[in-house]
Fold each of these.
Amino acid sequence: MSTEHVISDEVLEIIKLAISRNEKWMAYNNSLYFIDRADVLFFKEQEAAEEFATNNISDYDCFNIIYLQSVADVLQQISYGQMINEQLAGNPDANGLYNQEGNAFTDDLIDHIEQQQLLNNSKNVSIMNENNLKYLQDSLKYHGFGETLNPELEKQLQKGETEFSLAHKTEVNKREIEASLHFKKSDSTDMYFFNKYDCKTKNESKGESVEQTFYINKGTGVTLKEAYNLLNGRAVHKELTSKEDQKYQAWIQLDLSAKDKNGNYERKQYHQNYGYDMKEALSYYPIKELLKEDDMRALVRSLEKGNVQMVTLETPGKDIRVFIEANPQYKSITVYDNKMQRLDKDKREELMKKPEINEEKKSKDQKQSLNGEDQAEKKQGKGVKKGKGEGDDLEGKLLPKKRTNNTKGLSV
């Protein structure tokens, strides 16, 4: 078993963090010559540290425990061999400040090692800041904000303030859209996180200004283009996370006729168990783009992002171009003519596949959706059932989000 050890710089930094959390009992693997971060654990109580050391004895591991209040305590209680020689190789003035066993150190030697650690910490902070910047830049790009904000983002990170915001303005579908992106520094580290953004644009059909706050949850959320589609009443398909940290698929949609107490539009959510199969809904129409696998996948991906997509219907005598969008509420697709006027029930039935799909073969869901869409258009969306909110695993039910706190926005 080794009686001398080399401790990594990262472990010395972790020791400081543990002390700040009042975890002053350290268990370290005494079987190893080089002690890295995976070889140390910290505890608030001596009993817990001793229990861990006792339960983790093996042919390769043997844990000792020490009590510490500073990095100097570690340097005084653990035997160092080659580490001291390496530390002093570049500092001849420090020679002779320790004995051959490495058990007795002077204050000068401790100061020297801690000064070296500070230099290493400075380098580590620089690397961490670079990684944090890259992480945030990638996050902005992933969420559809491009790279134009990168210079200002780096400038704000260098200031070191607790939180800051960045303004962004661009066009989606030739319509102006504005966003204010909010960043906040972690309470426990120097890392910054992109938490949310406020989005504002004009509704395509009404021409009125609409805005919403969208939250970034564990690095993922609604993209800028998806936010634009949501603010125009369309549905977007996302992977969400429940309160129990379980992943699931759902369609989300904003109710543009109702706002919560924070001024945000209420959200409707259609869980994966709600039963909406968009591919089946598309199959009722003679859509040319469904004939090739690649074209079909591209069409489905576009509709899942909330886009209005132009397709070609192969009808007897001629091809007709229409626009479609996903309609998860009625388990169907909404169809528009080339002037973006919504087609009524009779016109939609006329365009459906024949004779493969007729009145006798139509599913019950399809009939209900045709009637339901017309009723919804007349009632302007009134009477939609409200559910319990995101994260509730309710099979076959509509799950709109219902907020119980003062946080503003949509969390994905």
Note: Residues 107-142 form the longest helix (36 residues).
Amino acid sequence: MIVRRLTLALAVLVVAASVAVGDQPGTDPGKTFMWRVERGGTTVYLLGSIHAMKEESYPLPPIIEQAFAESEVVVFEVDSDEMTAAAFQLLLAGTLPGGQTLESLVGPATWAEFSDRMREAGFDPKMCASMKPWMAALTLTAFEMTSAGYLPSAGIDAYFSDRADDAGKERMALETVAFQVGLFADLTAEQSLAFLTYTLVDLETLVPELDRLSAYWRDGDVAPIEKYLLDGFEEFPDLFGKLVTNRNRAWLASIEERLAGDSDAMVVVGAMHMVGEEGLVQLLRKRGHTVEQVTRTLVR
């Protein structure tokens, strides 16, 4: 059922869900999930990021490391130095107004199922009693990911942010933490409840499906990733516009500014932002840029 993939799509997009290197082979091991755009003598690499990974997922393909080495500037969705503040802001935004409870919003049946899932994960459901549905869904999903070994500290963003610091490279951010928190804080009541509902439905299959996507990411196999991630939003076009399309379009100016400069750059953003007709790759092509998917062959 297409709508059941909403949780998977949201997880890959914004919940630090992970696509780690798996054992299942993809269809084209010669590619990566990275693209190259050139203008004049300037190169911008677009790397589809996985926000959390298993520690054993490294090392990354050497061509990705080479692209990083060649880049003087590394651009992320947000400044990683603000992530501690982001967690606090997210918790505040995800707390219900005084007197309200999650159980009163979702009903006794959904609360009972949520409580069972929390206990299975080893946590007291009462810790989420005052959370909004979307925040409860994020919390439960994060517990599931962590228990499976998927760590934000091992994600692509964190990895290259640390590397950029060590190498003395300039770091830039496309968005503020406040903006990203607002993406959730501004969800409608219907969208918030849907997020929790589908999380409960999909929880048992979430990690296996992410593992299945891992091989496609590793081999740069765009089509199945596009189908998995975008199908989940088919019945939620407004949510897709808010979380994906509008942000992609807003980022174009920054990417083109990088291309107009004289410093090579690597742009590291969520994998979902690369795929589909409204993905960064196609949007840049529509604006006349030549965008090529990077193969694993090293260029010396």
Note: The radius of gyration is 19 Å.
Amino acid sequence: MTRNLRFGLLLLILVEAASCLGQASFPITLTWPPESPTVKFVFAKYQQSGFVNGQGIFLSDVTAENLSDQPMPKSVFTVFVMDKDGVRIGRGLLRLPDIPAKQTTRSQIQFSVAGTPDGLKLLSGRTIPMTVASVPSGANLKIDGQDAGVTPKIIDFSIGAHVIELSKEGYAPANSPLDVGSDEAPGGSVSFELGGLSKDTLQLRDGTVVLGDVLAMSMTSVTVRVEGKDQKFDRNQVKKIILVERVVTQPAPAAEGSPAKPK
């Protein structure tokens, strides 16, 4: 795995709005940090724009003002929507570009909310956009157990520890931990080389993957040797079988004039 990362700046703060979405006076203004504000956020009144798969879709225009004398690097803020009992029922990402000192930028945030929105929490944390690549490309990618697309893919990593998983038909699955530090900046990349499979692969319908040597297949069952022990699976348990190429070594022909080996 290779990493090519530049140094950067971490912004991490948790800000809670004291008002409720359904009862608050709009616009909602939040400053960070409260003791010595350097950024001011103004959330316009939320508007419901639709209803999809049982969830309400809400939009809000947001203004972010850099109050400091220093430029503010690109940031991503996770905004949580809570119900009246304080249960998290929705989430959206507020993405901001670089903001020069004493300047203002505008953005918009969208929520999918399962329930009645009542409270608002804003988790401000700079994420690190990084490209996850694989050799060969086109591998299915998971980040921390969640599907994230196909490589190469730009992922916004939060600061901390992550687990990257890669899978591609015909290649051995790969996984690796990734620690994203607060001194890392956008533009980096991680690359993984997938190894060829040395064993046959059975993908079962319950998600289990079995690696071994397929010994026999019939209309009703599949027999696989796994670590020296034969295992038999009902055909209906098996979703997919991937067979690796077997190299058969032929005995070298005897040299002319050499006596034949006794049988």
Note: The chain has three domains: 2-125, 128-193, 200-242.
Amino acid sequence: MLVEAVPNVSEGRRHEVIARLVNSVQQSPESRLLDCSSDPSHNRTVLTLVGTPRGLTASLLLLYEVAIELIDVTIHMGEHPRIGIVDVVPFVPIRDISIADCVTLANEFGSSVADRYGVPVYLYEYAATQPERRALENIRRGQLEGLTKRMSSGTWRPDFGPSSPHPTAGVSTIGARRTLIAFNVNLETDDIEIANEIARTVRTRDGGLPHVKAIAVRLMDQARVQVSMNLTDYTQTPIHRAYKLVKHEATKRSVKIAESELVGLAPADALIPSAVGALEITKFRPDQVLDDQIAKFYADPPGSLSEER
């Protein structure tokens, strides 16, 4: 069985801390770190790991251990909403494992985090135990400060752990979900209200594109703002469609696009259709992708051919 985990850690500025976090998840022989993306404005690091359930659990517990040692959520400052130092850990089925298996893994791992480190855990998405907890943004509403006020009530008691935040680690959300694409578009303006307007136009919640979450972010190291998006079903809203709508809305406001960026990894069947759509290639066939043809060749190499005489 092969599972993906994408822990988001509330640290994106201190390089020495990020290096320790990266090292912590590379100790298990049954998991592998595929990508590390850090952003100083968000003050957040996104790690992408794959492995067996046992291997990922070992790596992620070490991640919590190092994060608790080095990060204090009470003094954390960043543009991205957060409720804890290890803010969210989703499990994603990759091979020979179901979403139901990932729900079981999320429950087991959430219980381990709460028992070992005293960090309250909420289960979200497919693992959610209550409808209002399925959407991560509902749990994060008001960030840690807002969640703390709700935690003692029956409706918002954590699934695991104490009913108040860990003194320095805050709270964690752990769950099971399908593949998500994190995609940002940076605007040539420092007007955060323009980014807010575009985010509202794009996101599903306000009547925008299906399966899109979007927020406005101010980039601390640039005189720019960002529309930061999560595409939760790229088969329904491809990357290029989200980009085109952001660009359209920016142009309406006389703002240019500075650049776009992919955070972490994305599957080929998300990137190739977006490239084809952006280039408006007609009559494209999947078998025109050279890499796929080479992979098929190695998977089923031709037999030796007799030399013609």
Note: Confidence is low (pLDDT under 50) at residues 304-309.
